[in-house]
Design a protein that fits this description.
With 421 residues, the chain is an alpha/beta fold. It has 2 domains: 243 residues, P-loop containing nucleotide triphosphate hydrolases (Rossmann fold, 3-Layer(aba) Sandwich), CATH 3.40.50; 129 residues, abc- transporter (atp binding component) like domain (Coagulation Factor XIII, Chain A, domain 1, Distorted Sandwich). It is 23% helix and 33% strand. Strands 5-6-7-3-8-9 form a 6-stranded mixed β-sheet, sandwiched between helices. Strands 11-17-16-13-14 form a 5-stranded mixed β-sheet. It has a 3-stranded antiparallel β-sheet with strand order 2-1-4, covered by helices on one side. Helix 3 packs across helix 6. About 4% of the residues have low confidence.
């Protein structure tokens, strides 16, 4: 298969100027030279993207993702190395890129189309489809200057132009999630159609679930260097590992917020994550996991104590929470040192790094100790499902089957012979 994009030994250097000499005297003193610092946004990038592939570029802010995309688009020239592309290329790189704010939406459609290599007659033939794809709000404003458009309208119109010029290579930077849910679904449907037609798509995003859903391969960048290329799940895990390595765990005691009257009567001294394989700090989705919370009540006897955990996803969303009181597993009386163990028989989480909050408190909610999202759990899951949890799902086709009279129907499941009485 021919390569749509070949990147060989590409590096990109920028000059960062920290001073600006405005007077003749300053320029004479410094010999006309303005001091600068060299900044390498990209270093020795080698990447081959085959025709028909969908590749997601992942990385933290400042890792070089957008710079690489601009080099592929020809907006920036690499300092060293070479980039070769095959076929018509359309790029949607940032909000309003290529738009002239004093022109109307209609005029900008023709301007952008001509910049992407289309004749006026070709743009006119596709104009109605472009405007229709952009949505009703853009359609009503199409003959108004785009400087009066909302940010969402800007990107929707830009995306509609980019995908309707029928490019062989589509470059998208952080805009696939723009607009409301209906427009996002329409964008993803069009991307899927592009994939079926064998077009090449390169996406820059922070959304790991989007990469799993859309991309056949992924690449992770860190401080301008390519750290991994491969299956989306593996690359996402590497990307998250790099993010975690650069962060220091916070002081748990500094995360508790307002102190309760009971604060530190019982202290959390350590938390241990017991993985199924001791040599690997990772758990497969569906495998067992144990969390062990070490406490110290010192010389006190405490007869009102509840231990709790809460599992949070990558962006802080709560995936699951429980405690010994809610689950009717009372701890009784504690004194001195000991351990409270939470054993999860089958962890249903999808691939990713999760953070666990652990706490000790009274039945009335007064905190003894609390570590907020302090304990990382590394979960590995196969497949390309998206979300937080994996549900055991069986998909079957029933030729000739029916569902009520249409709409949404609720009914009880029919009993089978294998069911217990």
């Amino acid at each position: 298969m021919a390569a749509a994009v070949e990147i060989e030994g590409v590096s990109k250097r920028f000059r960062l100027y920290h001073e600006k000499f405005t007077s003749l005297k300053e320029r004479v003193i410094h010999g006309g030279k303005v001091p600068f610092e060299e900044f390498w946004a990209l270093r020795d990038i080698d990447l081959r993207i085959e025709a028909g592939e969908s590749v997601g570029l992942l990385g933290h802010n400042g890792s070089g993702k957008s710079t690489l995309l601009k080099c592929i688009a020809g907006i920036l020239r690499p300092t060293t190395g070479e980039i070769r592309t095959q076929g018509r290329l359309a790029a949607l790189l940032e909000l309003g890129a290529g738009f002239q704010p004093d022109l109307t939406g209609r005029e900008n459609v023709f301007l952008n189309g001509s910049l992407l290599g289309l004749k006026r007659s070709e743009i006119a033939a596709r104009f109605d489809e472009i405007v229709h794809f952009s949505g009703d709000e853009v359609e009503r404003m199409i003959d108004n200057q785009v400087k009066f458009y909302s940010s969402g309208m800007y990107v929707r119109l830009g995306f509609a132009i980019a995908i309707n010029v029928e490019p062989e290579i589509l470059l998208v930077d952080e805009v696939l999630a723009v607009g409301d849910e209906a427009f996002q679904r329409k964008c993803l449907d069009r991307v899927a159609a592009f994939q079926r037609e064998g077009r090449t798509i390169i996406v820059v995003t922070h959304a790991a679930d989007l990469v799993r859903q859309v991309c056949t391969r992924a690449a992770a960048l860190d401080h301008g260097r390519l750290v991994e290329v491969g299956d989306p799940n593996d690359v996402i895990r590497t990307f998250r590992d790099h993010l975690m390595t650069g962060e220091h765990a916070p002081d748990p005691s500094a995360l508790a917020g307002d102190r309760s009257p009971e604060w530190r009567r019982v202290r959390i001294t350590a938390v241990e994550v017991v993985y199924p394989e001791p040599s690997q700090a990772v758990v497969q989705s569906g495998d067992p996991l144990e969390l062990r919370i070490a406490y110290d009540a010192r010389d006190e006897v405490v007869d009102d104590i509840v231990a709790g955990i809460a599992v949070h996803g990558a962006i802080g969303q709560l995936a699951y929470g429980t405690n010994s009181h809610l689950s009717h597993q009372e701890l009784g009386t504690v004194s001195g040192r000991g351990v409270v163990s939470f054993r999860i028989a089958e962890l249903p989480l999808l691939d990713g790094v999760y953070r666990v909050t652990v706490s000790l408190h009274t039945r009335g909610g007064l905190q003894y100790d609390h570590w907020e999202q302090h304990v990382p759990i590394n979960v590995k899951a196969s497949g390309r499902d998206v979300g937080v949890v994996r549900l055991a799902t069986t998909i079957a086709l029933e030729p000739g089957g029916t569902v009520g009279d249409g709409g949404v129907v609720f009914r009880a499941r029919e009993a089978k012979e294998t069911d217990q009485p």
